[in-house]
From TrEMBL:
It is found in: Membrane. The keyword Cell wall biogenesis/degradation does not apply. The lineage of its organism: Bacteria, Bacillati, Actinomycetota, Actinomycetes, Kitasatosporales. Pfam families: Glycos_transf_2. It comes from Streptomyces andamanensis. Residues 314-347 are annotated as: Disordered. Its EC number is 2.4.-.-. This is Glycosyltransferase family 2 protein. Its main location: membrane. It is an enzyme of class 2 (transferase).
Length: 347
């Protein structure tokens, strides 16, 4: 059950984790909308902004905002590690009894955070998903591909995966600790969180247009996310390779019957078409099967390497002179081991 904590100032009841990569254009709008919402809660809170190796003025703007907003905490990663790795860094170091993950583009409205927190407290929930009730701001192609993605995930990982729920969610401390204890190398939280099986609820909202800047998840990145989701949570592609091999065997048997029939009837000259078709078909099936096997072998390889997903360059919650990335004393635990060779870094 969710941990109940009295909401008093001086106690970190809520942590809001926000991965950021080149968000200088969106930051002012985010701060203007988020701070009034959190100040109005009446609970102690922190905003954990994870700068994922931004190349623009994101770090400078965060430092400037922090001068007038003491609850703003900035974690700077040494290099761009990808959205899920940055989210992992924030979850690993967040101190709140409840943790909300939020993107910096304001497409997921910060104004829904009080509703999520209230629902978790009233019903004793450990997870509250932000579910998109309206995706009219997305293109028709994006809505179609997103619908297919969630249908596929629900088929592979079970009905516990909520439809149209991204990374906008609230987690209790118990849920966060459970996630931190998992040994998964490549983390896709929209699958891992439902897999935990904690009591959950939903808050619906209308997805808004991005406040500023460009999307960090173009089509290519969404395809890679889907590939990581499928290969990281299901062995179905390996079974697909087996079915492809069986289908190719059946087709080859049919071609063999066709060839023998042609030979018996004396029609042997035209056989080059069937031969070419068989060679191309079998070669294609073999390449697909080898590729699927390669994906899983690559996951084994990177798991053996056990490289961390991120290195913290600085954390404003640490005292001056602390060595970023240490896990000694009262410092937060060591970075989650997600292999760098397969972590999807931002472009």
């Amino acid at each position: 059950m969710a941990q109940e904590v009295d909401g008093t100032h001086g106690t970190t009841v809520l942590s809001v984790v926000i991965p950021m990569y080149n968000e200088e254009e969106a930051l002012p709008a985010l701060v203007n909308r988020l701070r009034p919402v959190l100040d109005g809660l009446g609970d102690g809170y922190e905003v954990v902004a994870v700068d994922d190796g931004s190349r623009d003025r994101t770090a400078a703007l965060l430092a400037a905002f922090r001068l007038g907003w003491p609850e703003l905490r900035v974690i700077g990663l040494r290099r761009n590690s990808g959205h899920q790795a940055a989210l992992t860094a924030g979850l690993d170091r967040a101190a709140g009894a409840y943790v909300v993950s939020l993107d910096a583009d304001c497409q997921d409205p910060p104004e829904k955070i009080p509703e999520m927190l209230a629902l978790a407290r009233e019903q004793g929930l450990d997870v509250v998903y932000g579910v998109r009730a309206d995706r009219s701001s997305d293109s028709a192609f994006k809505r179609w591909t997103a619908g297919g993605y969630y249908r596929l995930l629900r088929r592979l990982a079970g009905p516990s995966v909520p439809a149209h729920a991204g990374d906008f969610r609230l987690l209790s401390r118990a849920a966060v600790d459970a996630l931190k204890a998992l040994p998964d190398q490549q983390r896709v939280y929209r699958l891992l969180v439902p897999w935990l099986g904690f009591p959950s609820g939903q808050v619906s909202y209308e997805r808004e247009l991005r406040s500023a800047g460009r999307t960090k998840y173009p089509l290519g990145r969404m395809i890679l996310l889907a590939a990581d989701s499928i290969t990281g949570f299901s062995a179905a592609p390996l079974r697909l390779a087996t079915w492809l091999g069986g289908g190719a065997f059946v087709v080859c048997l049919g071609l063999l019957v066709y060839t023998l029939t042609g030979y018996a009837l004396g029609h042997t000259v035209p056989g080059w078409t069937s031969l070419l078709t068989a060679v191309v078909f079998i070669g294609a099936v073999q390449l697909v099967c080898v590729g699927l096997l390669g994906e899983y072998v690559a996951r084994i390889y990177t798991a053996v390497q056990n490289r961390p997903s991120y290195y913290v360059g600085h954390d404003t919650a640490d005292g001056p002179g602390d060595s970023a990335g240490d896990s000694t004393g009262e410092r937060p635990p060591a970075p989650r081991s997600v292999p760098r060779s397969r972590t999807r870094a931002e472009p």
